[in-house]
Amino acid sequence: MWGVLSVLSVLMFTYTLSVGLSCSGKFQCVSSTQCISRSALCDGVQDCSQGEDELNCVRVSGRHSILQLSRGGVWRSVCWQNWNPSLGLSSNSDLTPGGRPWPRQVLSALKPTAKCGIRPGLRSRIVRGNMSVSGQFPWQASLQYQSQYICGGSVITKQWIVTAAHCVYGFASPSLWSVRVGISEQPVSGAGDLAVAKVLYHAAYHPERVQYDIALVRLAQPLTFSGQVQPICLPNYGQDFRPGSVCWVSGWGATQSGGEVSSSLQSATVPLLSARQCARHGLSSWSVCAGYLKGGSDTCQGDSGSPLACEDSVWKLVGVASWSQGCGGRNNPGIYTSIIQALPWIQQNMEVRQDPVARLWADPSIIISWEWLPRLTG
């Protein structure tokens, strides 16, 4: 998994993209090193320089997509019983439940503009086999460093790719990175490579630890979605994917331990393992384990950053390939970074950088108006 990347790390000067500070019990602004009290979150007052403390105030939680609002760092579900249109026309609708004027500026665009987790380019269902066909995983991305394949990634919006922090750690210059999408075969030339505008990884990530192995790559120009290129949905906050659920991994990694990376996109099914089974390997809640404890299909060298995708009416990104001991060995499942744990970090970085199509839930029918919020929370 560390093959090509470890060679490059010897040749390149390493430095971090951001400084990890201790904000224990507090909220750390993404745009600065400032730490603020959690009671100041979602209070209508912009404490961070770019307003991050007022961005993450609405979310969709759990398998049933429950709408929740945050106040003072506490998430509460919105009640909807006995609603009718007249409730939205109160004369004091400009006031919050506490009687203060409600801020009039738009804080976030919450109306989804596109679907995710669909495969319009796949006409037949793949039942067996390791070699993937065009359109089977339209969210799969290939990350190139100086025109050389390094890691996989997942398309989540028209301009954002999710990958692993260890793929980009120490290689911060966006001009040296490029991305390929909509392919199942790695081209010999760099034709079709997409320029990268920004590379970000979690400030708390360190190569000697397995936590926080998450990164974002922002493309210089937005993608055009098609049958071969589609975003994968991110899971809802707190959504539970049951152990034993069969999911898919895909990537251009080696087909055997110590082998060369593949020129063809490979894929395999793997069952999710329980948190208890993960804990046996000394892992935290930031990790998801998947694979066969008796040995079998697994990620391998070169699959780092690639998606662990599970189908839940639509396809959702459950994990990002992080590491494993060997490839498919007995009692050595694949280890993936938990996207559910990484959601707050993903959301903060995408919203602060003003991506208008950032969306963190799967249901395209959810439309939220900020004008509703005083009534919803009252």
UniProtKB/TrEMBL annotation:
Signal peptide extent: 1-18
Transmembrane stretches, start-end: none
SMART domains: LDLa, Tryp_SPc
Gene Ontology terms describing biological process: proteolysis
SUPFAM superfamilies, alphabetized: LDL receptor-like module, Trypsin-like serine proteases
Keywords: Disulfide bond, Glycoprotein, Hydrolase, Protease, Serine protease, Signal
One GO MF term: serine-type endopeptidase activity
Domain Peptidase S1: 126-351
The UniProt record lists the keyword Thylakoid: no
Entry superkingdom: Eukaryota
Disulfide bond residue pairs: C23-C35, C42-C57
Keyword Signal: yes
Pfam families: Ldl_recept_a, Trypsin
PANTHER family reported for this sequence: ACROSIN-RELATED, TRANSMEMBRANE PROTEASE SERINE 3-LIKE
Protein name: Peptidase S1 domain-containing protein
Organism: Electrophorus electricus
